[in-house]
């Protein structure tokens, strides 16, 4: 999401000010580009987001635009603007960190260590991988997982995607190979699976895509579509990259892989609510519907989660009255029309 064509910004402002969000997470490619024109683009972007970023936590992780310079906006600053404009937890120069919110543990990782040779080497990428394993191992100690049963990882470049330009089979194996010298995203797939990560959010591709539970290119989907998200047997990956940049959203590969469950190129953002220890509600917001009025939208799903592989076998906790929940959602739809 950038300052130029930042389509999601008005909706984020309005709904933050209306108390609809507990936090906003921006998964890299921030401002397009923070360093550009001696930082003046960065200043403009920070001013644009201030009406909501001053109200709720605004959590960030770097994308390729935080390191690589593009077009006439060069030279870049190799992440300096990103590192100095934000202050994320745990003093890692905003590279990777965790935080908890309600019953969820959020784990942020920097996928650029596998691609940007100026800021990374084998030691840097392996250090993050070691940290990630350690964090998730501790998160799965019974007392910790009981307190934070939801583990949600986010980073910039997706492990799975079906955009036409960069995600077709045979094209760097769905982006996971990295630059070939500092490891690859393959290992991240293993870690998410091994430690029972529930959800993984990614950006970079300019569209929205919800996957079926997937690991090692295998979609864990049942014959009944709805059942795939009940007791899923692998991590559910979400690509959420339509906050708005100067170029248009992307075209899809016309023959998506089996793990692709839903795709949309509408500008917007993903909102989700952790309802309790086993239920999570996720929806994609289309900010351009109804002549620039904001409408909660199109891809609402209710996930009933628990991991059936022994790593997180907490009891299913049923919501007493879902009717009330959906009634509230309907009111919100009305409010935004
Ligand atoms: Fe990107």
From TrEMBL:
Gene3D superfamilies: 3.60.21.10. Transmembrane segments: none annotated. Keywords: Glycoprotein. Residues 234-288 form the Purple acid phosphatase C-terminal domain. Residues 13-208 form the Calcineurin-like phosphoesterase domain. Pfam families: Metallophos, Metallophos_C. One of its GO terms (molecular function) is hydrolase activity. It comes from the Eukaryota. InterPro entries: Calcineurin-like_PHP, Metallo-depent_PP-like, MPP_PAP, PAPs_C. CDD domains: MPP_PAPs. This is Purple acid phosphatase. It comes from Medioppia subpectinata.
């Amino acid at each position: 999401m950038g300052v130029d064509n930042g389509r999601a910004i008005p909706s984020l402002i309005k709904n933050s000010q209306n108390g609809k969000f507990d936090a906003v997470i921006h998964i890299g490619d921030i401002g397009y580009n923070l360093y550009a024109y001696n930082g003046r683009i960065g200043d403009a972007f920070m001013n644009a987001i201030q009406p909501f970023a001053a109200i709720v936590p605004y959590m960030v992780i770097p994308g390729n635009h935080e390191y690589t310079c593009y077009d006439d906006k060069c030279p870049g600053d190799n992440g300096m603007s990103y590192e100095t404009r934000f202050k994320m937890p745990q003093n890692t120069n905003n590279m990777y960190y965790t935080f908890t919110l309600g019953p969820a543990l959020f784990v942020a990782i920097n996928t650029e260590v596998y691609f940007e040779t100026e800021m990374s080497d084998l030691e840097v990428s392996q250090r993050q991988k070691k940290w990630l394993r350690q964090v998730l191992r501790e998160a799965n100690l019974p007392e910790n997982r009981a307190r934070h049963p939801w583990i949600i990882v986010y980073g910039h470049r997706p492990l799975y995607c079906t955009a036409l330009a960069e995600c077709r089979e045979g094209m760097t194996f769905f982006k996971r190979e990295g630059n070939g010298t500092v490891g690859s995203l393959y290992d991240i797939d293993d870690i998410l699976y091994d430690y029972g990560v529930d959800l993984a959010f990614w950006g970079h591709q300019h569209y929205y895509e919800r996957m079926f539970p997937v690991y090692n290119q295998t979609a864990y989907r049942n014959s009944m579509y709805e059942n795939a998200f009940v007791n899923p047997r692998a991590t559910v990956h979400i690509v959420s990259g339509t906050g708005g940049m100067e170029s248009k959203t992307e075209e899809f590969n016309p023959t998506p892989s089996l793990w692709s469950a839903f795709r949309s190129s509408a500008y917007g953002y993903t909102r989700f609510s952790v309802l309790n220890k086993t239920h999570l509600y996720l929806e994609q917001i289309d900010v351009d519907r109804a002549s620039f009025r904001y409408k909660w939208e199109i891809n609402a799903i209710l996930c009933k989660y628990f991991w059936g592989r022994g790593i997180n076998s907490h009891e299913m906790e049923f919501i007493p009255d879902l009717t009330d929940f959906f009634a509230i959602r309907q009111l919100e739809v009305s409010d935004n029309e």
